[in-house]
Design goal:
- The protein has 9 helices and 13 strands.
- The chain has helices spanning 2-9, 12-19, 23-37, 53-75, 90-97, 101-107, 213-221, 235-239, 272-291; strands at 42-45, 48-51, 83-88, 112-117, 131-135, 144-159, 168-169, 178-186, 189-192, 205-210, 227-230, 243-248, 254-263.
- Strands 3, 4, 5, 6, 7, 11, 12 and 13 form an 8-stranded mixed beta sheet that branches. A 3-stranded mixed beta sheet has the order 9-8-10.
- A hairpin with a 2-residue loop joins β1 and β2.
- The radius of gyration is 22 Å and the shape is globular.
Length: 295
């Protein structure tokens, strides 16, 4: 809907007044969309914005989708209930958001919830999410407010049955060990991801590839590979002692800040504080599980 409004406004400046967002934020939003679609949507000039041929095709498709959605929601009374969209990267969705969904439903019984897994590269697209959990501070539009919730531990995990590696090792001990490699899919291309491992990717023996930290843990469980991942993603496998955390003497402990970002229009919702408390309670539980397995 936002990109259609931008197209109808003929310029970023006009769209900025209509949508009450800064021109720079809308320009970044359009740039991210073009990056996602893999083509230029608008021709920019001193006269404003004009859709390119590819842009016209995209806009026509979006209009059909919007018309179809509005037709469905207008005819079906079940769709009258408002929807709150909660987005995060997949491991946070699976291990933080979904486990407290029943509590969230109790807090906001008047809403249905749309829970989305989102690539880290597209988390900060404006106008899409009501609430978002994400790693690290991001450049959000003025219509969103961010707060740091906690810090999450990263660690090197391996199968508990992998006898080749002791509990504590040096980097040299890892030279013959395969590392699960992070990747992501963008613009019809598979690209290398960043797992924040202290050992550079070019210095590691590459193993299987996956876009999911949870999948990386599962790969380690059934192989002789290791993975450097957020330990929240495998807390259950650590607790059941199927996986273990390997200490590498030369490596510092890696922690990454976890943020929650909320649409500014929702900040006055009385239930928001209770929702954030439920998230924090879940994180404290996970931190307790993980701390017992970090040497």
């Amino acid at each position: 809907r936002k990109v259609l409004q931008i197209a109808e406004s003929d310029s970023i400046r006009n769209a900025s007044r209509l949508l009450k967002e800064s021109p720079s934020q809308l320009s970044k939003f359009v740039a991210r969309l073009e990056d996602g679609f893999g083509c230029q949507l608008f021709q920019r000039s001193h006269r404003g914005l004009n859709p390119t041929a590819e842009g016209k095709a995209v806009l026509e498709t979006l209009e059909r989708i919007l018309d179809s959605t509005e037709a469905i929601t207008s005819d079906n009374p079940d769709y009258k209930q408002p929807v709150l969209t909660i987005a995060s990267v997949s491991f946070l969705t699976s291990h933080v958001v979904v486990p407290i969904l029943s509590k969230i439903s109790d807090i906001w019984p008047e809403y249905r919830f749309r829970v989305l897994d989102v690539s880290p590269n597209y988390v900060a697209q404006s106008g899409i999410f009501d609430i978002c959990l994400h790693m690290g501070a991001l450049d959000w539009p003025q219509s969103y407010k961010s707060n740091q919730l906690s810090s999450l531990d990263w660690g090197l995990v391996a199968s508990s049955e992998l006898s080749d590696l002791p509990q504590e090792v040096s980097e040299l001990d890892l030279k013959h060990t395969k590392f699960v490699t992070p990747v992501y899919f963008q613009n019809s291309v598979i690209q290398s991801g960043n797992d924040f491992c202290p050992l550079a990717a070019k210095q590691r023996l590459p193993g299987d590839q996956t876009a999911s930290a949870s999948n990386a843990g599962e790969i380690c469980l059934f192989s002789k590979q290791v993975a450097y991942i957020p330990l929240v993603a495998v807390h259950h496998l650590l607790e059941s002692q199927l996986l273990r955390v390997i200490t590498v003497r030369e490596w510092p402990q890696t922690k990454k800040d976890l943020f929650v970002t909320v649409k500014a229009t929702h900040l006055k919702m009385k239930a928001l504080k209770t929702f954030l408390q439920a998230i924090e309670s879940r994180l404290r539980h996970l931190e307790g599980v993980i701390s017992a397995h970090i040497k």
